[in-house]
Structures are given as structure tokens and as C-alpha cells.
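Deliverable D5.2: sample structural annotation.
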Amino acid sequence: MLLKELQSALDFSYDGIYITDRNGITVYVNNSYERITGIRRSEFVGRHIQELEKSGMFSPIITPFILEKKTPITINQIMKNGKKVVITGNPVFDEKGKISFVVTNVRDVTKIETLSAEIARHKELNSEYLNKLTQLKKEKEISESIVFRSSIMKNVISLASKVAKLDTTVLITGETGVGKEVLVNYLHHLSDRMNKRIVTVNCGALAPNLLETELFGYVKGAFTGAICKNKLGLFEVADKGTVFLDEIGDMPLGLQVKILRVLQEGEIKRVGSTDTIKVDVRIIGATNKDLYQMVADGKFRKDLFYRLNVVNIEIPPLRNRTDDIAPLAYHFCKYFNNKYQLNRKLTTDLVDVLMEYSWPGNVRELQNTMEKLVVLSSENELSIQDLPKTIREGTSELHSKDEKLTTDKLIVIEVENHDDIEVAVKNMHKISDKRNYPLLIIDSQKTSLQEMQTLFNSKSGGTIYISQVNVEALTILIELLNASRNSMRIICSVNRNVMNSIKEKKKYERLLKSIEMIKLSLPVHNHPNGSDITTQIKYYFDYFCNKYNIQSELPTTIQVILANHPWQDKDELKGVVESLVLKNAKEIELYHLPENIYDIYSKNQVPIAVNCIMPLKEAVKLLEEQLIEMAIKKHGSKRKAAMKLGMSPSAVLRKLEKHKKYDK
């Protein structure tokens, strides 16, 4: 029998202790064993180990094997209550070297297994969260690589984000240098193929035969002089990934049918082989050409075009999204500062000039310009003089075009879309010598020549824009303008056919000499300095908020008021915006405006430049009303105003009474 002192010590063990004698009879079970099994020790003590196994107390047993082999043994055992335990049996020898007892240590591994499973589950969750965080980080990095502020680019990126995870073909169109490859990388890294390869092929940079072998690979002996082994094509290299076919409009017709097979069947054939190979790739195409026209001309396969053009994303040229020029300039300046370990800074004047330029090379040209500025400038503060001569001259050309608006001739603008011309006309009016007079916009299709003649006789001094004018109407307008005694300027928009008729037919030679022709191929920019004035206001406001570390908002109402004000130059605009920021208000209010601006709008007076589409008779009244109001405000009395307008005082009073704007 074991000593009581020894039994008491074993009862303090956390592990279960099970002891049998040399005959397999249970002689001792400690407290922990009772806890693990949930069975009282009295049901074990005195019973044979094999009997207990047969009754289902536990299984399997190791005591017989230890008695036989006389060495320690460890196995897994399952208890009656379902718990899993690890048992290790050790023989205890007497003085004669015979086994007197077998002491079995029992450890409950159910909790350990539960904890292990819990740890494994947490590891799996952590791995999943890590993957998600990595993906979100990559998405953020990719998103930050596309710098934009304009609403038009916001729509482009929104569409790209929607189709990125859809495994569909995408065709990206746009001029050279707009950033098509950047958008392709954005699509790939947001897709489910993000962890696989993306392969780029410039279809216009390789000869047809070489392009075919690059895309599809070849087998040994495919052509004379071939390397003595097979070569994988890029479709195989990019399996499970993305293939970007840049300048796909330059792809030969013979090769287009093979690309169509990849899209339809998902299979290729290496050059020189008859065996088909399955590939799983997403194809994204890009071009700066008009594929619709190429299909019509038979230069591009119609079936391939429709398979490629499942989703079309068009990236607009930089000149049509001037809001993006300043953010891109700062982005490239920061990038090249980091690359070359420099500390160059942009001035607002330089950014103003950048925003005036039309950027025919788009974002790529702006990027190259910024790199040149950062690298070659001798000062940390970059100035206008650091700009390439071509950009400075390009800016000057815009201003020289604006100066044409001082002509007294009838201005005829050739446009392709009459809906877009109104904005350009408004901008032209703001930079013209008649910017302090009203602007009237009318539709020639809804206005008779008799009504136009009435308008000419109204003695107005502003600007009239007439849309969709034909040759006959132009001839009559010239006659009306010559016969009129007022100083009104007429701007007309015509389509290409009308313009060609004027230029080609001899009978219109006299008409040709009487008009100033402008072909509007680029947007005409706003006063005061060439870039869109609303963009300028937003840019100056953000700039000064950052400069003075002030958080403020500029409501749309204030933006509209500032955009319609007749600014003398950009410095005046910049000074007013800076003064508004320095008000340090959470939101700019009307009373924050300078008095000369606030007075015009607080008294509900009509803005100087009015853009309207209304019945002609009402428009004439509005023009007269504005001119009278302006003259009275400028000269201080109705009599002086009447003299300046070439009207009698009684006529002024009569019109004022009619408009009910002033008392007699």
C-alpha cells in the first residue's frame, strides 16, 4: 500500500494520476483524475484495468503493454465522458528489477485542442483581415496614383471602380497621354486577378509577325532561324491575369481574328502548332483612334470591336478638365522632389499659367514639364520664367485670340456642337471690350428676322449671340448691322457646311470681308487669366485656406457671385478671395464680400452680364432696363443718363415707369 503522505502529495497534482499494481489492479486514483473523468475514484480502485476498459470507462489501455515491454508508453485515450486525454505510463521497479507498479499520468487535452482550434481560427481571421488590409492599402495606393479633382474624372473613376471586379472586357479610349495605362493598372489591382500578372503589349510598336509571336508564342521549327525550343506567348504568361493591348487600333486585320478567338473561346495556338491551349485572361484594350470610323472603313473587324467594347471608358483630354491641372502639377512636383531629393515649390502665378495652357500632350506632357522644372530650376521657388518657351507662347496665343474680340465686325464661330458654344460665348463676352454691357443669347430657329431688326433698333450696346445661323441669315445680319446706329456686337455660330459655303462660293466674297471668322476647336477660356474662373476661385480659396491653416467653406451662391463679377485682372480676384479666407469664418456669408461686390447683389440689382433665353420682346426690354440702370448709377442722374444713352429724358422716364424700377 502506498503511504498516506505520498497519496496526499499526489492529490495536489494538476494532472490525473492513475496507479495499477503488477497484476493490473487499480490501487490509486488522485483528485484530478476524478475531475477529468467526472467519476468517483471508488469506481476505479480495486478493479482490473481490462475490466474497466470493457465497461467503457476509457479506451485504449497501455498497462498490459508496459508490463510486457517494461518501458514508458504514451498514447491518446478517450474517456467515458468523451474527453480526449494524453496518457503516459511509466513502470516502477522493485529492488529485484521487477515491475511493482505502473504509474500513468493523465492530461486533459480537450481544452488544449479547443484552444488550438481557437488559435487556428484566429490565425485564419488574422490572415483574412491582413489580406483585406493589404488589398485596401493597395486600393488606396492605386487610387492615390490617379490624381483628379474634376467631376468628369470622378465619373470616370466611379465607372472604373464598378467594372474592376467584374471579369468583363474593357475598352479605354482617349487621346495620347491622358493616362490610359494608369487606369488599366487601377482596373487590374482592384480586380480578383490582382495577385496575378498584368502584361502590357503595344500593338503599334511591333511588326505584325513579331507581335503574333509575342502574343501567342511559337514551337520549335515554326520558322527559319527559330530558337531550338518552344517559347511561351504573353497570353500564356499572363494566365489567370490581365493582358493590356495598348493601341489596339494599330493591330493588323489578320491578327485581329486570333484575338477574337481568345475572347470567344479562351484558347490560343502557338505559331507553327495545331494544338490549342486554354488560357484564362482578362483583356483590356486601349486606343486613341476612332474605332467606329475604322470599322466603317474596313480597317477594324466589327465582331472584334463589339467583343472589346463591352464597357467603354473614355478619358477626357486635360484641356476639358482644367480642375485637374493644379492637383496634378502639385502631385508631380512632390513626386520629382522625392525622386531627386529636392525641395522645389510651385507659385500661384506659375500654376495660373499652367492652367491657361491647352496641354495637347495631356497628362504626359504636364508630367514631363514638371520634371523639367524640378530638375533644371536653380531656385527652390519655381517661376513662370522656368517654363518652356512653347508653354509661355501657347498662353500668349490664347490671349491674342481673346484680343480679336475687340473687332466691330460680325463674329462667326464654326462649331460642331451648338449646345457647347454657349459657355464659350459667355467666356468670350467676359474678356471682350463690351464686358460691362449685357449679353443676350437667342435661338435663330425661334426668332424671326423682323424681331431681330427690332432688337437692332433698341440702341443697346451689348453683345448678342445667335445660334445655328445659315448663310442667308448671315447676309441679312450684316445689312442690319451696317444700317444700325448702335454699337452692338453680334456673335453667330455656324456649322462646317455653312462656313465652307461662305469660303468657297464667289457670291459670298463681300460677306466674307464683313465678318471675323473664328474656328472654335478648343474651349475659349474665362476672364481674368485664361483658365475657367470658377476653377480659379476654388483653387485660390483652397490655396489660401492651406496657407493660413484655416478651415472654411465657400458656398455655391458666393462662387456664382464671384464668377459673374467683372474682374479687372487675376490679382484683383486673388486679393478678394484671400480677404474672404482671412475672415476666418466657418462658412463665407454675403456680408463678408467687399462693399463694391456686395452692393451690386444685396440690392437685388441685375448682374451686368445677363445670360438668358427668352422671347425676344422681353429680352429687348431687359437690355434697355439694364442699360438705363447702369447709366443712372454711373452718372448719378436720369438726365445725364439719358444724354449718354442718346435718349430724351422723357423717354428714359417713360421706360423707367414702364419697368416700375424707379419713381418719377
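Annotation notes: Residues 616-659 form one domain. Residues 110-145 form the longest helix (36 residues).
The annotation will be released with the project's public dataset once the embargo ends.
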